[in-house]
Amino acid sequence: MPRSERSALLLAGLLATAGVGHFVSPRQFDATIPRALPGARRTWTYASGVAELALAAGVAVPRTRRVAALATAAFFVGVFPANVQMAVDWRRRPAPQKAAAIARLPLQVPLVLWARSVANGGKGQS
Question: How would residue 124 be classed by pLDDT, with cut points 50, 70 and 90?
Fold first, then answer.
């Protein structure tokens, strides 16, 4: 299997796993939804889970991979405020939890770059 195909399928697997997690354990995701968003937090949790599952399916299929991977990069940028909210909310938690919340912030950069690389067929950034 070519490296670009393997990378795309790994990204699809990550998205699918995260998407399923929104339905299996929604409370942990509810807590990361910024308070400024209108409506119920659970609605946002489920909507983002559906989005991740749809993106996973799109990235897994070669015919839709480029558009889905670009949408995935945009999604990763769009959920960054939830990661910031989590870091703020968890600042008084035990050190390992606080460290995990803070570590998620710079993790968005490689995720965005990975999705862009998949969109470009593994040929770096454009």
Answer: low
